[in-house]
Every structure is written in C-alpha cells, then in structure tokens.
Amino acid sequence: MEAIVGGKAAADRFVETAVRGVSIDSRTIREGNLFVPLVRVKDGHDFVGEAVAGGAAAVLWQADRPDPPANVPVIRVGDCLEALQRLAADYRNGLPVKAVGVTGSNGKTTTKDMIDSIFGTTYKVHKTQGNWNSQIGTPLTLLDIAPDTEYAVVEMGMSEPGQIERLSRMVRPDIAVITMIGVSHLSTLGSREAIAAAKMEIVRGLEPGGTLVYNGDEPLLEREIRLCGEPARSVTFGFSDGADYRAEAVRTDASGVSFRLSGTTYRIPLLGKHNVTNALAAIAAAEVAGIALERVKEGLERANVTGMRMELLRSADGYAVINDAWNASPVSVLAALDTFGELAGYDRKIAVLGDMRELGPEELRYHADVGRALNPDAIPYVFTIGELAERIALEAASRYPAGRVKHFRDQAEALREIRAKLGPGDAVLVKGSRGLELERLAAELLKERD
C-alpha cells in the first residue's frame, strides 16, 4: 500500500496489517477500515483516535501534521487527498468494470440517475450516490465498487480547471457524457468558454475507442472538439436539427414528460423539458452500451432521481410543493420557471426564488434577467429570499400588480407569507442555490398548519 499511496510506513512492525475498505469519517468507520484523515473545514487528524477506537486497522497521516499515533499502523503521505485518489485509481485499474462518466454545468445528477436506471435493466450497476461528484466523492465512489459490478456510472463535478481531467483519469470512462454548459462557476473560471474547456477535460481519461456523448445544442462544445481534436467516436443529443438523438413532440403533464425519438415514444416521470435533454443523453449512452430498446424505455419510465430536483410533493394541507432547492443557476432557474408556468390544473402559483451564486461579476445582471423573464399570467406570485435575489424582485415588480412580488430577509418571514397565501389546489415552486438551504422551507411547507 505504501507504493500505491506514495507514502512510507512509520513502523515496520505493522507491515502485515490487512485492511478492508476505506473511510474518511470516524463516525461511520467499520472494523478493518483504512482511515484517511482529510484536511477540510475540520482536520481529520483530530479524529484519528476515534477512528482507531471504532475499529480502523490503519491510518494515513499527512506529513505536515505533527505527532502521529504510535499504537496503530500509520503511513505518512505528502497529502491525504492525493493519497486517497491514488488508492481509488489503483483499485479501479484492477477491476474489469466498464464506466460511464457524467459531467456538465446542470443536469449531471439527474442524467446519472437515468443512466443508472436504464443500465440496471441489463447490467449490475454501481453509481455515484447523491451528489458525491467531487475530488473526494469520486474516489470514494470508485472504492465502493463491488468486484462483480459490470458498469459504474460516475458523476464528476468541478470548481476549477484540471479537476475533471484528474477525475476522468481515475474513472477511465468507456462512455463520457457532457450534459450542457451553463454559467455556474463563472466566479472562478471567468467565461463560458473556460467552463466548456474544463468540462471537455473528461475526454482526457476516455478509454481508447471510447465514446463521447455531448449536447449538440451547445456551440461551445463543438468549438472545444475542434480545438482539442475529436475522440474516436462521438454522438450528440438535443433539439437542434443536426443532433444524432433529437427529441420531438414533447408533451408535459403533472406526472411527467413524453417525447418522440426516431419514431419511438418515451416517457419520464419527471417535470420539465430540460429533463428531456437529460433523457436523450441517457438513451444515447444506453445505445452505445448495446441495451435493447424496450429495456431503455423501461428504465426511463421507472427512473428514480436524487431528491430536490423538480420534486413534486403534496403538502398536508392539499397544495403542491415543487422542491427544486438543490441548486440554482440562470439556466436551471429559467427552465424551472418555464415548466412551472406551463403546469395546468392549479388554482394559483407562487414561485419562491433564492440567490444564484458563483456567477462572477455579472451576478446582478443574471438575477435581473430572471426577473424580466417572469410572466405574471403564468406565475401570479413571486417571492424572493436572499441579498442577490432581491434584484429578481425589483425587475419583476414593474410588470406585476401591486403586492404580487415580495422580497424577504429570511425563510421564517417568507414562510408566514406563503402559508397565508396558499390553499388546496395551489402550487409553490422552491428554488435557490445550495447555500441558502431552501429545502428547509420546502419541508416546512409540506407540514400541516397549526
């Protein structure tokens, strides 16, 4: 193991120690685990004692941290995160598993879940749990793959250049999927061109003869392919005429969306036209993997996606709550508003919108754009929460009747006003960036009123 993680054992007497599994959390350690003390907001080295007491058989120890324990097998490493990634890459390299890698500014978690559902009709599949797509989550996903797994579906996220390449070289995808290019992370990357280049890094880990599946409606991805050189095989999806997988006849109702592709009608149990794009990516990946058409349809129809993504719920008081509070960007907010505005069968609709973050110096303009896009005929009430979201309210107020647009300082204040407005037969959309934790507001709205 020393060679794998690029470290050195602190004492030779523990050389025969066997480990089973890896953990970064002392609270969930299992007997025989290797404990990796990552340095984050809290320093994992402070919890090594707890990990050992919980059953850890060995620990890594970062070289710049003093006083490693003497009573447990310790391997000193230069950086614990790098060591974790090296360990994951080595484990993945020893598996016969094939992999599907998924990245993109929006839609990657939903697309990953759809791919998992389709591939699960034919293969034994392991997927990224929840939103564990980071420099930490991805190696942990790989280390959790069972030896008899046939396909791993691995989501990859990033916040700066180079990160997707690092993850892709660990994952070694046979199929690489890029969902779309948005404006998230403009604060660190500076431009949509830079975001597209960062997402295209996924091809650097693509297996020889592998396939790139990407959004054909995005010119920046076409540009990146011209700049970087096209992989051995690529297919496109989208709504544009030139897409290899092109959706037509999209129909939406309260229980989901249907569309037609190459003469076949598909249905997904999710709200929003943007989820058709995600479904097209999943279909393309499935056909590359040789999955039969009927199994593809079956997998899509039963897709169960990670929560807080246009999740339609019924409150105890009879109104609908659409919880889309996982995150927010201009693209995803506008898509959610379009879907919400088109939903029929509700007496009254309220959009509750929070800040969109990490948008760089143009953040106020993006919030103003959302405010200008709001349609009082489709969505009669707009409530905003957060410093940046106030700009949404200011822009929308000029076109709405008095009292229909309100800004709130906090969730508690907004909750009182929303509950006063909502009745059976109404619907409320809740959407904002992760940092606002608007899922707490959605959860309160689902409870029965006192």
Describe the structure.
By secondary structure, the protein is of the alpha/beta class. It contains 16 helices and 21 strands. The protein has three domains: 2-78, Udp-n-acetylmuramoylalanyl-d-glutamate--2,6- Diaminopimelate Ligase, Chain: A, domain 1 (3-Layer(aba) Sandwich), CATH 3.40.1390.10; 95-301, Mur-like, catalytic domain (UDP-N-acetylmuramoyl-L-alanine:D-glutamate ligase, 3-Layer(aba) Sandwich); 311-446, Alpha-Beta Complex (Protein-Tyrosine Phosphatase, Chain A). 48% of the residues are buried. The strands form four sheets. A seven-stranded parallel β-sheet has the order 7-8-6-9-10-11-12, with helices on both faces. The protein has a six-stranded mixed β-sheet with strand order 16-17-21-18-19-20, sandwiched between helices. Strands 1-5-4-3-2 form a five-stranded mixed β-sheet.
Q: How many helices in DSSP terms? A: 16
Identify the overall geometry.
Answer: globular
Helix amount, in percent? 25-40%
Beta fraction = 15-25%
Task: State mean pLDDT (0 to 100 scale).
Answer: 94
Query: What's the end-to-end separation, in Å?
Result: 58 Å
CATH superfamily of the largest domain: Mur-like, catalytic domain
Summarize the structure.
The chain is an alpha/beta fold.
Identify the notable features of this structure and list them briefly.
single chain, about 450 residues, alpha/beta, Udp-n-acetylmuramoylalanyl-d-glutamate--2,6- Diaminopimelate Ligase, Chain: A, domain 1, UDP-N-acetylmuramoyl-L-alanine:D-glutamate ligase, 6-stranded mixed sheet, 21 strands
